[in-house]
Write a structure and sequence with these properties.
heterodimer; A: alpha/beta; Rossmann fold; 2 domains; six-stranded mixed sheet; four-stranded antiparallel sheet; 9 helices; 37% helix; B: 12 helices; 76% helix
């Protein structure tokens, strides 16, 4: 069963089309890499899927529920890391995660163990008592990821989760996301192409709101290969597809 | 309801970890203290005069200085209302504007929380601070009741004072609701605060300008500048009509805020 189902999704702002007739599906336990240059409509699509923005046309379903008709059912099943991690700078990491856990309906008895689980997963155990505004960018990003994992939602929507991390932290997050596959359905947007190759089975490339490629990574490279030439890298494919 | 309480608690923790709560408490207590001392010394002057001349020969407007409640505390209500008109918008301005600017609004809107829970939680958090701010000024009647004397037993009429507090609190609650609505319309805290303060002060001032105007203008303005509806409460009269009227202003603006938050889903 497809956990994320998008059909003919279009988002218009006055005279600008941010997303144009986008359709795709993500099966349960799959990781889909969401690629595209800046302004291609990646974040907008994610905002529509999480119910933050309405679509102008088309439908989006998460776990079989229409995002617009049954927003609460959808929100219960999604963990979302927006482009800017939604953090309250004045709060401690612990207080913040407790707050989000409560909003996500984690019962009072389970909040403590849930916090521990997520903190260990994201390497936050030793900064739980620190105030968020004093944390480095990398740790803030991790708190953002931790927040999305609270309550173990079946669908994770991560908008550039490795943004602002150093190479070592990036590798950790990649590892984390790989581990999440199978149990969670993940929609992952990023600029960093090798990252997609390492974590995702399938990629979707958007350009100016339109879908330009949607396939398994290997097939994408094979299809783009010129007869007689060597198979191009994902980077070459990406540049070629988004050049138009 | 658990969500609304969690949001209220979050708002409170932010008010107390930033200087806002303390700034507001200090402003309210400090400025009221200044007027309290003034009010008290004026009360003494009038009473000394009355002792020499006898109350019967004093002008009518001084008759209220016969007791501490009407002579010292009642004049403070006007002061507290003006401070509230400035302080409540300062508290309410960040409620939504800050979330929008910091992008945390996305967290609230994508969590399984209904918009009404967000709105009520935020309002409740603000209301606790407004109530505490006004509650701190109970210090002044307490000082009077400890050191004051009157011929008829207790130095103060507490029922009158508590009704006065109810009036000021209702006023603060409606300022907060108006401010929260304005805050939900913008990303700029500064703009939300300034607009709300201007609206509240204009409503306080417009009444004075139309004292001499003709009916029905005078009545209309009287209803709009809703603090004048509270005059009876501040005199110690349990005026249910005024309570319902001013409370419904809060409810109306909470409803408008809810519409404004809900509109996010449609725009």
């Amino acid at each position: 069963m497809a956990m994320i189902e998008v059909k003919g999704l279009t988002k218009r702002y006055r005279d600008r089309v941010a997303v144009d007739g986008l359709s795709f599906e993500v099966g349960e336990g799959e990781i889909l890499g969401f690629l595209g240059p800046n302004g291609a409509g990646k974040s907008t699509t994610m905002k529509i899927l999480t119910g933050f923005l309405p679509a102008s046309e088309g439908t989006a379903k998460v776990a079989g529920f229409d995002v617009f008709e049954h927003p609460m059912e959808v929100k219960r099943r999604i963990g979302y890391l927006p482009e800017t991690p939604p953090l309250y700078a004045e709060m401690t990491v612990k207080a913040y995660l407790q707050f989000v856990a409560t909003l996500k309906g984690v019962t009072r008895a389970q909040v403590k163990s849930e916090l521990e689980r997520v903190a260990t997963r994201c390497g936050l155990a030793h900064v739980m008592g620190r105030v968020i505004q004093n944390l480095s960018k990398g740790y803030r990003q991790r708190v953002g990821i931790a927040q999305a994992l609270l309550g173990s939602p079946p669908v994770l929507i991560l908008d550039e989760p490795t943004e602002g991390l150093d190479p070592a932290q990036r590798a950790e997050v990649r590892q984390l996301i790989k581990e999440l596959a199978g149990k969670h359905t993940v929609l992952l947007s990023t600029h960093i192409l090798p990252e997609v190759q390492m974590t995702c089975q399938k990629v979707l490339i958007l350009n100016q709101g339109k879908l330009v490629a949607y396939d398994e990574i290997q097939r994408l490279a094979q299809n783009a290969a010129q007869p007689g030439a060597a198979e191009p890298s994902l980077e070459e494919v990406f540049i070629k597809l988004t050049a138009a | 309801m658990r969500n609304a309480l969690a949001i209220a608690r979050k708002e409170l923790s932010i008010y107390f970890t930033t200087p806002w709560a303390y700034v507001v408490f200090t402003a309210m207590v400090g400025i009221t203290a200044f007027f309290f001392v003034g009010s008290l010394s004026f009360f003494r002057t009038i009473n000394e005069l009355a002792r020499n001349m006898g109350w019967a020969r004093m002008p009518g407007e001084y008759q209220s200085f016969k007791n501490l409640t009407d002579g010292v505390i009642a004049p403070l209500w006007g002061v507290m209302i003006v401070i509230t008109a400035i302080v409540a918008p300062i508290l309410s301005m960040r409620l939504f504007a800050e979330e929008k600017r910091n992008k945390t609004f996305e967290l609230l809107m994508t969590a399984p929380v209904r918009p009404i829970e967000i709105v009520l939680g935020k309002y409740l958090g603000g209301l606790v601070i407004v109530t505490t701010t006004l509650g701190l000024t109970i210090l002044f009647p307490l000082i009077l009741s400890l050191y004051g004397k009157s011929e008829s037993g207790s130095a103060l009429e507490w029922s009158t004072i508590l009704l006065g507090y109810l009036g000021v609190l209702l006023y603060g609650a409606s300022c907060l609701a108006v401010g929260m609505f304005v805050s939900s319309l913008t990303e700029s805290q500064m703009l939300a605060g300034v607009i709300t303060i201007i609206v509240m002060l204009a409503l306080l001032l417009v009444k004075g300008l139309t004292q001499t105007a003709d009916e029905p203008l005078r009545s209309i303005v009287g209803y709009l500048s809703f603090d004048s509806q509270l005059q009876n409460l501040m005199k110690g009269v349990l005026d249910l009509k005024a309570i319902v009227y001013v409370a419904s202003i809060s409810v109306f603006f909470i409803f408008l805020t809810h519409r404004s938050v809900e509109a996010q889903r449609w725009s």
